[in-house]
Structure prediction request, 224 residues.
Amino acid sequence: MTTTPASYRPVRVDAVLDSPLSRWLWLVKWILVIPHYIVLLFLWIAFVLVSIVAFFAILFTQRYPRPLFDFNVGVLRWSWRVSYYAYGALATDRYPPFSLGAEPAYPARLDIAYPERLSRGLVLVKWWLLAIPHYVVIGFFKGGCRAGWCSLGLIAVFAVIAAVVLAFTEKYPRDLFDLIMGLNRWVLRVAAYASLMTDEYPPFRLDMGGIDPAGRSRGSVGSS
Prediction:
């Protein structure tokens, strides 16, 4: 696996905590985002198919075709904006745009540096074998259904706690926001690595706060 100094990571995840926030809108956001969930269902099917095509392209050419890369970055961006609005953070009341683009005016942003070359060897193992330790960790962050029972992940639990505090105090706890961002940042870095978009192994580290302290990209990022 490839590692780099903490001063550089190819995945940058930034967000701004909006203020003021509605005290009660979070109770119905699960309804408001249903149109996004429907679109994202089809986008994620396409994401998987594109990743399979990219796998073979990398295996034979060491390159991730740029149009395919930009599309998958767009799906991750869209997903991150919806998650930030809904129960991945509940940190904005601005409705997410239906867009694969960068949308720099939206408070949740994601950029991934385009890799000029990727390892043929790593593409065979990083998405399943090397990423297993991270899958175990982010399983606790995201939750899910296993062996017939379902559970909320830490991210959703902390987001709801922040919303309850907001409902009674009119303030979103800043320390809790920083922690939620660190957890989401970890998940998105792993998603980019497992999706073959980078060879840089994600750090086992919570980089908390709205501004990514280790996301200064070398080179180009996914296009708008």
Q: What stands out?
A: The radius of gyration is 17 Å.
